[in-house]
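#onboarding

Welcome to the new folks! Below is a worked example of what a typical request in this channel looks like: someone posts a single protein sequence, and someone else replies with the predicted structure as tokens. Don't worry about understanding the tokens yet, we'll cover that in week two.

Example request:
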Amino acid sequence: MPLSATNGVPTLFLRREAFERSGLTRATLDARLNLTPEEFRVEGNLIAVGPIHEEPSLVALVEELESLGLVYFDDFFELSGNWPDWLKLFAMGE
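Example response:
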């Protein structure tokens, strides 16, 4: 089942295997980003975090993921949310 991305704000997509390898936990992200249950979604090999409403939080998370050895684009990717209201985007991992 594809995971939706919200327009107007970023959503971070991670490969599940990469997230698990990083040592981060959902509880850690929930506390750091004040996520609701709907803002941390898992479907198959893909995790969607967001929408992330505060840019400094997103930047800090990307920096932390990279410091843990994850590679932008190979292990995770951020969709900016910069698309029109009339367009709905969905993501699905392989």
